[in-house]
Design a protein that fits this description.
This protein is an all-alpha fold. Helices cover 75% and strands 0% of the residues.
Length: 438
């Protein structure tokens, strides 16, 4: 398949894409969900640490695929290459028309919530502000991958400011708050493994985004060298950042004030820096979320185009329409329309939990692909190999299976919804294979 075009993305933009896409709304807003399902500060910090370690294992594993198969498409391409077009199509379908639009919706919801709180707007402003945020990101990315990469690099630097400020002053804050580092559920009545699984489900959303840098491998200057390094270094730094900022939240607020509280980050900023300082930190948080929006738009809009080039989608000419700079603008428009519908439905945690469940099924397929290709294609050039093979890939697979099984038992309706929506892609695949020679 002929690949695109401008190879304008170097190591730092790739690193910024990993960290910038991962560090978005989750770092500030998933503390409400993790404390709610774990019940104690010790278990909360434990699931953040464990989630980071699992994600690092996942990144180290998939980096082998990314370096050996440096093509646009990321996860979809790895699964297609390993298991065939049907599996690749389902992965692409789930990402293109469910995962990425819902991620855009979730990020825009929390962005709009921060704008509302900052400007003291009425509740009715949430929807139009969220929609405007998504549309503005689409317009920027229509200028090309270089413009999106510049925005990602800038927002990465800016978004670290509120994180560093909250971490430093939060950990120094002398409040009447008891923090335990022992991972137990205490007297909450929550089963340990239920709390662990639900907590990991929440943290996996906050850590998600690392794999999508693979979508732009074809536009990187040196993907075989830069891609694995960007993934592994970026995830290691993100894990440290997440542990520190969640410790800061727990040091400044009793855990009962954090449970289910989506405004915990804003309230922490106001507590530490006063009203004016809190506003500046809130603006930094908004920049962070906006950068995450950019990361998901920058990578997501290229998947339908890649699928259309392979003849996997009806009306493929529509998805392949490009701007002068080579950006697949029509694919972006379609994803924005779906995202706007999802914004109108709301429910931040429900959307994100369902998506983590769905995407980790495909992540596990990608992890196992390393084993398949090591056996099937021994001659495949692998500039990078996952260290401590097969231990690290096995950790990633077993962790993913645990999270999915736990979700099936504890949130069956949510899991079933994700499965059904994913399987809706099968009739489209069958239609295309009947009418197109694939």
């Amino acid at each position: 398949m002929k690949q695109t075009t401008n190879k304008g993305i170097g190591f730092f933009p790739a690193l910024a894409l990993v960290m910038g896409t991962v560090i978005g709304s989750g770092v500030f807003f998933k503390i409400s969900n993790t404390t709610e399902v774990t019940g104690t500060s010790g278990m909360t910090l434990f699931v953040w640490l464990l989630g980071g370690l699992i994600t690092i294992c996942a990144g180290l594993t998939v980096a082998e695929l990314a370096a050996a198969i440096p093509r646009n498409g990321g996860l979809t391409t790895y699964i297609d290459y390993t298991y065939g077009k049907f599996s690749g199509f389902l992965a692409g379908w789930a990402q293109s028309f469910i995962y990425f639009p819902a991620m855009l919706a979730a990020q825009s919801i929390v962005f709009a919530e921060q704008v509302k709180n900052l400007l003291h707007l009425a509740q009715g402003w949430l929807f139009p502000v969220a929609v405007l945020a998504i549309i503005s990101i689409l317009l920027i990315n229509c200028l090309g991958s270089k413009a999106g990469g510049i925005l990602q690099s800038v927002t990465l630097v800016v978004k670290l400011i509120p994180i560093i400020a909250i971490v430093i002053f939060g950990l120094m804050h002398k409040g009447d708050v008891e923090v335990s580092f022992i991972p137990t559920t205490g007297d909450t009545g929550i089963n340990f493994f239920t709390a662990l699984g639900a907590g990991l489900l929440a943290t996996m959303f906050a850590y998600d985004g690392w794999i999508h840098v693979g979508n732009i491998a074809g536009e990187m200057k040196n993907p075989k060298r830069d891609l694995p390094l960007a993934i592994t270094l970026g995830l290691g730094l993100v894990t440290v950042i997440y542990l520190l900022i969640n410790a800061a939240f727990l040091f400044t607020h009793p855990i009962d004030e954090l449970k289910g509280n989506l405004n915990a980050a804003t309230q922490t900023a106001q507590l530490l820096f006063g009203a004016s300082g809190g506003k500046l930190i809130t603006i930094g948080i908004m920049v962070s979320v906006y950068g995450a929006l950019n990361g998901y738009m920058m990578t997501g809009m290229r998947l339908p185009e890649a699928m259309a080039k392979q003849g996997l989608l009806p009306f493929k000419e529509t998805f392949m329409k490009l701007t002068r700079s080579g950006a697949p603008w029509m694919s972006g428009v379609i994803q924005v329309v779906i995202a706007v519908v999802m914004v109108s439905l709301g429910a931040f945690d429900s959307i994100t939990n369902m998506l983590v469940f769905v995407i980790w099924a495909f992540y596990c397929m990608a992890f196992y692909a390393v084993f398949v290709l090591r056996k099937r294609e021994k001659e495949l050039v692998r500039p990078y190999k996952v260290p401590l093979y097969p231990i690290i890939p096995l950790i990633a697979i077993l962790a993913g299976i645990f999270v999915m099984i736990n979700t099936l038992f504890t949130q069956f309706g949510l899991a079933l919804t994700g499965i059904v929506i994913t399987l809706l892609g099968i009739p489209i695949y069958l239609y295309q294979t009947k009418n197109t020679q694939l």
